[in-house]
Structure formats: C-alpha cells, structure tokens
Amino acid sequence: MAPRSGTRPFSQKTITDVAQRAGVSISTVSRVINQSAPVSSNLENKVKAAIAELDYRPQTAARALAGQKTHTIGLLLAEIGTDFYPLMIRAIEAEARKNHFNLLINVAGDDTSIEGEIPYTLGEYNSDGVLVFPASLSDDELYRMHLNNFPVVLVQRRPPAGLEFPCITIENKLPARKMVDHLIEVHGFRRIAFLSGLADHEDARRREQGYHESLESHGIPYDPTIVAQGYFQKQASQDAVCEWITAGFEFDAIFACDDISAIGALSALNRAGLNVPNDVAVVGFDDIEVSRFLSPPLTTVKVPIQEIGRAAIQQLLAFMNGEVPDMCTHFETELVIRRSCGCR
Amino acid sequence: MAPRSGTRPFSQKTITDVAQRAGVSISTVSRVINQSAPVSSNLENKVKAAIAELDYRPQTAARALAGQKTHTIGLLLAEIGTDFYPLMIRAIEAEARKNHFNLLINVAGDDTSIEGEIPYTLGEYNSDGVLVFPASLSDDELYRMHLNNFPVVLVQRRPPAGLEFPCITIENKLPARKMVDHLIEVHGFRRIAFLSGLADHEDARRREQGYHESLESHGIPYDPTIVAQGYFQKQASQDAVCEWITAGFEFDAIFACDDISAIGALSALNRAGLNVPNDVAVVGFDDIEVSRFLSPPLTTVKVPIQEIGRAAIQQLLAFMNGEVPDMCTHFETELVIRRSCGCR
DNA sequence: TTGAAAGCGATACCAC
DNA sequence: GTGGTATCGCTTTCAA
C-alpha cells in the first residue's frame, strides 16, 4: 500500500505492531502501558518484551486524542531571554518531567499572529494547563480560559478583578522597604536613587512602593530626578545611571528593582570610574544566580526562584486533577547582605 | 449525553461545530483553515465568521494524528539553567513560532526515567524534528533516530562516526589561540592559567587545544598546576581559582573556556582582593549577554548565539520539508577586546 | 482477565 | 468548489 501524500517520511511503530508481536489485543497493550487495568503477569511480560524489542513509543497525538489529555503543560512568558528565567525554567521542567508531563514553551512577546488568522499559542487545544507569567496574556484571554474552566496558574501575578485563579506570589513591599531602611539606617545614605521595572509587572510596582515608604518614614523627600526606568534590562539601566552621572545628579546609593538592573548600574558606575560601594552603593532584588559572583557581590533580596517554579507546577497539577489548589501560594523573601551595599 | 470518564472537565469546540454554524461541511472548514484548496469567498467568509464567533481553535492532537505532522519542534538540552541559553532559546522560539511551530523542551540531565518504563522524551512520537545540544542524547539514541530517518539537527556538536546529521558549529580553536596570543604578545603574560569545560563538550575541547597551541608556539611550557576544571560553572570555577591563590600558585592571566567560568574567576580574584586586570587578567569565551556589563567588562570571543539558534531551526525546517539541508553550518567567532585583559 | 469495537477530531482522498 | 467518508493510533466501554 502506497503511503498517502503527507505521510511522514519515516516509519512509526504502532500499538498494533506491539500487539501482534506479543500475540495479544491492542487493548491489552494499552492496559500494560497505562496500568489502567490488571493484566496477567504472563501477558504483561510478553507485552513488555515486545515493546522493548520494537523500541515502541506511543504516539502522543493519538494518545491525546483518544484519552482527551495532552500530557502537556504550557509555559507562557513575555520574554525568555533574561537571566531571571534559567533557574525558574529548570525547576519547572524538572517538576513537570517528574510527573510525566511535557513542557510547551511560548513567548508572547514574539507574537507574529496575523489578524484574522488563528493564533498559535497555548490553550485547551494543545495542553492540559498553563503557567502564566507577568505580561504574557491579556485579561481577555484569561477570561476566556476561566470561562472554559481551563487550568491556569498565575506566577508572580494576581488574577484580574472578578476572576479566580490560583497564583504564586512573593513578598515584595516589605523587603524592599527593609532594604532601603538598611541603606539609610546602617549606612547613613540619604540620596538613594531608584531603578524601576516594567509598569505592568506587579512585583516591580510593589518594590517601588517599598522604596517610597522607607523614604517617607525617614523623612527623606522623594526626588524624581534620581528615579528612572530600568525596564528589567541591563542596557537601559546602565544608560539611565550614566545619564545621572553625566548630569551631575548626586546620589550615594542605587536601589535597583531587580538584579538585572543592578548589573547595569554596577556597569555604569564602573565605567565612570566610581567605586562600589565606596563611592556609590548598589543593591538589587531577586538574587539571580550571578549576583553573588559580581564584583562586588551584590546585596539583594533572595527570591526562592526554584521553589516558585516547583510550586507553580504542583498547584497546576492539583488543579488539573480536580483537587482544590491553594488559591494563593505566597513566598517570603529575605535580605541577603553582601558587599555592594557597603557592609563588611 | 454524559461525558465518558476521562473526558476533560472543560468543553472543546470542534470542527463540526464550526461547520454547522457556517452551514458547510467539515471539509470546507478544514480547507479554509489550512488553505489547502480553493474555497469560494462566500463560504470562506462564513467559515471565518463562525470560527471567530465560536473562538474555535483546532485541536492539535487531532490535527497531528490525521495529518501525520505534529507541528512541533523539540529542544533537547543537557542543562537549561545556565546563562548561556536564554538568548539561544529566545532566538529558537521566535524562529519556530514564525513558522507556526510549537516548541517542546526537554532537559536530558533531569532524567527520572525508570528502568523498563517507556521514556518520556522527544522523538518521532511527539515532534516533527529535534534540535540536539551537546551531551543531551546518547549516540545510541542518535543512531535510532537516524535509522528512522527522523529529522535531527545537531547544535554545537558533530555527528558520531558513521552518522550524517546537519550540524551547526562554531570556530573554536583558532580564536582561542588568538586570544591566548593576545595575552602573550600584547600584554606580555607568560603564566596563563586555564579553566576547562566539560569533557563531553566539543567546543570546550577545541578551545583547550587553542590554548595549548598558543602556549607551544610561544615556547611557554604547559603547567598543569594552573589548569583546572571549571565545568562551565561559576561556583566550580571560583573554587578552582581560590585554590590556586591559596596554594600560592603564580599566574598573571586566566583564560576561561567560557564566560560563565570567567565570572567565577573574576569573583575569586575579587574576593582575594586582587585587581583585574592589574594583578591578574581574565578572558572568556562566548560573549554571553552579561559579559560586557561586568566589572571590568570582559574580554572574550563573540559567539553569534542568536544566529546559531535561528540557523538551527532553519536547517531543521529544510530537513523536515525534504529539502537538502546544509550538512554543516559553520559560524566564525571574533575576539572582543574589552578591559579585563588589560587593554585600554 | 481478555478482546472487539466505538469513538476522539481532525485531514485528505474521492466523487460529484 | 463542495461534501461524504475512510483513516490516523490510541483509550475505553462493553461483552464474554
């Protein structure tokens, strides 16, 4: 029989091949693969042998179609090319794999969808549930998923008003405030600059609030000239700090709302020949992997990145299994004092 | 009709729903979705309207099963939690998406497969082709894929003897040699330490060869006491350099076989109170995103990370389309002189 | 405990 | 151009 056009150029073993080789029905093969019903150990061994001999792997498409489960979890991010995500994704991938789920990755920012065309993203048509990161999915889409009762877990993001989704959050405002308190109380700084994040990023906004609160509680006036947008980017942050320096603005410390911006700040200072922390102190937030290896090691707030990833998958799995997930998993964060603030 | 057990808890629109709503057959719906045959613009509009009204998205499982294509590309890595991959994955994701392919990610190192169980990884049963990174897949598995004529593109890795796969490679030995030449000829260093990578990583081995060749051509004896394994890791590299310092070994420069190890080296030197580049110079390889923001900015070899990712997808797509891919796509790399070597 | 057979939701062939 | 229908490979009922 000639293959139809569109047939793959490579052969695929099927469950029927296995069944024939083992001398059983395909039902039995399915049962031993999925352990979905008892099979006599005699047949079970035959089937296992046949599977091994043929090096058979079930086609996921057929499995998904018949079983109405894709065995796939989707990851929806706004941007994957940043230093914040490697460890997060590592943890997510490991946890998904442990539970025999595949990981489908989708970066919303790269969207090339054409008006009127069906969008190729993540949803009920290709996964059993998704992890949604900040700024990656519109409220409309979230609403649609909610209507369809599709399992979604929000990471570092709370659900929009009226919707209920489990979410994984972290403590931002208080540690940000404590960090600035530290700069003020321990080191005596009063001119503390701030590098903000993205406007649609909740964590970043709360960190900025912490900055304001600390300033206020110490009676230090807010000075917008030493506040700039870092956009979670090294280059933008470096540029901003360079401008401050060029403009002659005075500041004795910089609080960056994430470590990536802090790296940009460190770089700007280094280029200007300023010493950290002697001339200017720099502190960040997140404690990404590289932070403790910087020169000087960065004082920051430790966010349990891998725990967040693990928890996200666990809540999603619970949701998918029809269990009641924790609607809010909240992680504490703590100051990590290293050398860039002037300590030691 | 009651749903069978195992049915998803959430409803799914089907092509039949769309056909009914538009008053056409499912064949016609399929044609407009895939533009696989001409459809009168009258019906086409009706179908598009129905799709929009129902917010219909074709189920990928059904599509894959019927069409014998998964529309999915697999990424097989040994480790995803490193600073080298973010930009690579970003480029790969963007390029895959542009071509309407999904991205499935699999980290081989996390393997939790159980003896006798069917391994849940990547292959012909769940993707149309895979990108294989160093140390992520055994030669046996590669051989199996080759037998099945399954599209594979190797990235930063050459095929094992006897197998033919398109591969994406970069220039390693020559630039490594030039880098060490630079250290010797421009800066007059003769005690140059080396931080090696992983033994099963071809790029790392070639870079080490470049180091040897440069030393040899300058008549500098190879000194194993100042050569250590950095394992592409910051911590391991930091530890190695700390040990050298503690042991009192002398060296005036460190050539790290990748930027990640260089960061570890920088950190060790900083902790020991040594100035880079005045006391010891440090150079790396890869030019990952953070390198130019380090203090001091890192002299390194620029590897076109995003171009590699893009080329890998393009070759894989060609392979999958039955075209003849370039069996070897080779990228040049160039020295990027910054300040950590002592220049400026 | 086992096998036969009815779907799952698409694609693509065939006839009209 | 359009519709009917066999088919993809598997899971799950149902009957034995």
Automatic annotation (TrEMBL), chains A, B:
Keywords: DNA-binding, Transcription, Transcription regulation. Signal peptide: none annotated. Residues 13-67 form the HTH lacI-type domain. SUPFAM superfamilies: lambda repressor-like DNA-binding domains, Periplasmic binding protein-like I. One of its GO terms (molecular function) is transcription cis-regulatory region binding. InterPro entries: HTH_LacI, LacI/GalR-like_sensor, Lambda_DNA-bd_dom_sf, Peripla_BP_I. This is LacI family DNA-binding transcriptional regulator. It holds the Pfam family Peripla_BP_3. CDD domains: HTH_LacI, PBP1_LacI_sugar_binding-like. It comes from the Bacteria. PROSITE patterns: HTH_LACI_1, HTH_LACI_2. The lineage of its organism: Bacteria, Bacillati, Chloroflexota, Anaerolineae, Anaerolineales. Gene3D superfamilies: 3.40.50.2300, lambda repressor-like DNA-binding domains. SMART domains: HTH_LACI. Coiled coil: none annotated.
